Amino acid sequence: xxxxxxxxxxxxxxxATRNVYGEQQLELDVWMNDLFVDACRESKLVxxxxxxxxxxxxxxxxGRFSVVLDPLDGSSNVRSNNIFGTILGIFDRKKLPAPGRDxxxxxxxxxxxxxxxxxxxxxxxxEFVQGGAGRPDEFFLIEEGLRLPAKGKLFGVGGHRDKWVPxxxxxxxxxxxxxxxxxxxxxxxxxxxxxxxxxxxxxYPAQVDKREGKYRLHFESxxxxxxxxxxxxxxxxxxxxxxxxxxxxIDQTVPTYVGNRDLIERLRSRFENxxxxxxxxxxx
Length: 284
Prior knowledge:
Elements: H1 2-7, E1 14-18, E2 24-26, H2 27-43, E3 46-51, E4 58-59, E5 65-73, E6 85-92, E7 103-111, E8 115-121, E9 124-130, E10 139-143, E11 154-157, H3 166-177, E12 181-182, H4 188-198, E13 200-204, H5 217-230, E14 234-236, E15 256-259, H6 261-279
């Protein structure tokens, strides 16, 4: 991670390439992708790797694990020196693409004032910080068994409000009336990290002109939803649990809502009620 820190000041310019989604890449996007893919290859533990910056699954050898990566989440924040990070998901003996419910572990790195690592298995979520005790390259445990606070304090929603689907507009109005504080920083890792520590709700919703959402199922939504669930929270697309979404292609996108379980359930119920009305169903 110290190596990444050293490259941040000198790889801020746009690259001559776009990723599979047609988005302009930075030099840092390409460099970090190559760095993590090479590390997976050199470990001899990884059989397959897929990344937001690549259009295909790469076979690396006969390792035990498969890895999904968003090497640079929040790349639009690089120029302004705001929060960005890396998201990763790890599968044990599963070929990609694979559903989120099959994840073995997930985590993210944040390159903020301190470099931190949040790492989750089904048994819990733990947070580490890099440096200290005269060992600048090591990570030290700072919080074990992280759980979302019982009552959420924050919310954040990406995209343009005028394009949010009606269910999300109405739900956000409720959160504002309940005086939850708005926090939105433009990187999934940064925004979710605040929810993990202070509780609340974060979403990048379905929009009226893009019902399938923006976030990439394999590289963003599944790993973060896995962490949310391991911390006592939940993740939904509005119609189903994120981790249960079938894996049909490595470039899938889904509407993504994560946070405290009670808030996610309230939003899910709102979507369900709209569907019932649309189909003419009523509960008795």
